[in-house]
Amino acid sequence: MALNATGRASQPGGLSHAKPRVLFGVTGGIAAYKAVTAVRRLRQWGADVTVVPTRSALQMVGKTTWEAISGNQVRVEVWEDAADVVHVNTGASADLFVVAPATANTIAKFAHGLADNLLTNSALVATCPRLIAPAMHTQMWEHPATVANIELLTKHGWELIGPEVGQLTGADSGAGRMSEPEVIADRAIEILETQGYRSQYVGEPTGKTWVISAGGTHEAIDPVRYIANHSTGIMGVELANAALRAGHRVKLVGANISEQVRDTCLSGIEFVNVVSASDVYEQMDRLAASADVVIMAAAISDFRVASSATKIKRGRGLDLTFEENPDILHDLATNRRKNAQCVVGFAAETGDETHTYLEYGQQKAQRKGADLLVVNQVGNSAGFGDVDTTVSVVTGAGEIIKEYSGTKSQVATGIVSVIDQWCTNA
């Protein structure tokens, strides 16, 4: 394997280190705050990310944030840690060089070989693929000088991503909006994969597709109000992460999952955002056609409201008419969309004076027709949210085959393991 002086592989397929090294440059555009998301996604995928901001970029997002998100020390000037020859090694050791956002000023420096900070110095020594995401006002983007500078960059081997047409700073809109951070991160990952790198959090590919629903549905009462439940979607997200780690291709249908919870999804999970039970049914019906495993972990409202087209006013009384939502799990289980498909359901139950929560779950398992049902107790600070949980995995006949307790991540890993074993041996 041929290596250069810094230890970076100099030919595709010859990898000197397991984690790809990404140098992520950030310049002083207002879109710098979006770059935080791109850095996070690259790290979640498994890249070792070093952020090199310009002095102006630190006016937008501070050094502490970049160090916390990347997990690495942040340097700005050439003279920092001079004994380690940082101004050479930072760029030369990178497997990928990303700049987002890239202002007109820094683009001009790159194009003409100026080197007045650590970022521009690094650009002169980097021999890896380079991806740049411009962000600026439309007039700046269309100025002949910028047009000429972009032509020089592409001639020198830089790959351009964006900019897009859309809302800019203030009331203006037009060409110059930075591409969305998820798009930038996904393209960066594609480039790393062409070099032979794989996510550190994904097992050997199984060739299997898992479709998982998560979260809690919202059923509209009128244009303002809705009926909901306490589900946060954390368990569904952890199931998706565990399935991805097991090497499966994962598609997650998320109902009203907060951005904070969604951000814990590992890169590589295909996320579909939905709101109501009808939305969940539509997407699960569509995606199940290509799924080897279908998991209904979302908390689906049993009923929806015959909603009002206008806001219901105080003093007029509240007389709601309810309609049954489709039993999505039963439909998916009894009308399999693909041969040899494994269908798994979740049952959040409470006990009463006649039956325990587990007995109710076992009864539900026999009604639903799924291969497996995961039963968990809810209420009294149990079940919903970021809390430890205990579940029982039962067969379609109600037989308990596994029990797991611990954090939702730990429990999800156990559930994925038993699904893998059960569906392989069934």
Automatic annotation (TrEMBL):
<dbReference type="Pfam" id="PF04127">
    <property type="entry name" value="DFP"/>
</dbReference>
<comment type="function">
    <text>Catalyzes two sequential steps in the biosynthesis of coenzyme A. In the first step cysteine is conjugated to 4'-phosphopantothenate to form 4-phosphopantothenoylcysteine. In the second step the latter compound is decarboxylated to form 4'-phosphopantotheine.</text>
</comment>
<dbReference type="InterPro" id="IPR003382">
    <property type="entry name" value="Flavoprotein"/>
</dbReference>
<dbReference type="InterPro" id="IPR036551">
    <property type="entry name" value="Flavin_trans-like"/>
</dbReference>
<keyword id="KW-0460">Magnesium</keyword>
<dbReference type="InterPro" id="IPR005252">
    <property type="entry name" value="CoaBC"/>
</dbReference>
<feature type="binding site">
    <location>
        <position position="302"/>
    </location>
    <ligand>
        <name>CTP</name>
    </ligand>
</feature>
<dbReference type="InterPro" id="IPR007085">
    <property type="entry name" value="DNA/pantothenate-metab_flavo_C"/>
</dbReference>
<dbReference type="InterPro" id="IPR035929">
    <property type="entry name" value="CoaB-like_sf"/>
</dbReference>
<dbReference type="GO" id="GO:0004633">
    <property type="term" value="F:phosphopantothenoylcysteine decarboxylase activity"/>
</dbReference>
<feature type="domain" description="Flavoprotein">
    <location>
        <begin position="21"/>
        <end position="190"/>
    </location>
</feature>
<keyword id="KW-0479">Metal-binding</keyword>
<feature type="domain" description="DNA/pantothenate metabolism flavoprotein C-terminal">
    <location>
        <begin position="207"/>
        <end position="420"/>
    </location>
</feature>
<keyword id="KW-0210">Decarboxylase</keyword>
<dbReference type="Pfam" id="PF02441">
    <property type="entry name" value="Flavoprotein"/>
</dbReference>
<comment type="function">
    <text>Catalyzes two steps in the biosynthesis of coenzyme A. In the first step cysteine is conjugated to 4'-phosphopantothenate to form 4-phosphopantothenoylcysteine, in the latter compound is decarboxylated to form 4'-phosphopantotheine.</text>
</comment>
<keyword id="KW-0285">Flavoprotein</keyword>
<keyword id="KW-0288">FMN</keyword>
<feature type="binding site">
    <location>
        <position position="368"/>
    </location>
    <ligand>
        <name>CTP</name>
    </ligand>
</feature>
<feature type="binding site">
    <location>
        <position position="364"/>
    </location>
    <ligand>
        <name>CTP</name>
    </ligand>
</feature>
<feature type="binding site">
    <location>
        <position position="346"/>
    </location>
    <ligand>
        <name>CTP</name>
    </ligand>
</feature>
<keyword id="KW-0511">Multifunctional enzyme</keyword>
<comment type="pathway">
    <text>Cofactor biosynthesis; coenzyme A biosynthesis; CoA from (R)-pantothenate: step 2/5.</text>
</comment>
<keyword id="KW-0436">Ligase</keyword>
<keyword id="KW-0456">Lyase</keyword>
<feature type="binding site">
    <location>
        <begin position="326"/>
        <end position="329"/>
    </location>
    <ligand>
        <name>CTP</name>
    </ligand>
</feature>
<feature type="region of interest" description="Phosphopantothenate--cysteine ligase">
    <location>
        <begin position="210"/>
        <end position="426"/>
    </location>
</feature>
<feature type="region of interest" description="Phosphopantothenoylcysteine decarboxylase">
    <location>
        <begin position="1"/>
        <end position="209"/>
    </location>
</feature>
<comment type="pathway">
    <text>Cofactor biosynthesis; coenzyme A biosynthesis; CoA from (R)-pantothenate: step 3/5.</text>
</comment>
<comment type="similarity">
    <text>In the C-terminal section; belongs to the PPC synthetase family.</text>
</comment>
<feature type="binding site">
    <location>
        <position position="311"/>
    </location>
    <ligand>
        <name>CTP</name>
    </ligand>
</feature>
<dbReference type="GO" id="GO:0004632">
    <property type="term" value="F:phosphopantothenate--cysteine ligase activity"/>
</dbReference>
<protein>
    <recommendedName>
        <fullName>Coenzyme A biosynthesis bifunctional protein CoaBC</fullName>
        <ecNumber>4.1.1.36</ecNumber>
        <ecNumber>6.3.2.5</ecNumber>
    </recommendedName>
</protein>
<comment type="similarity">
    <text>In the N-terminal section; belongs to the HFCD (homo-oligomeric flavin containing Cys decarboxylase) superfamily.</text>
</comment>
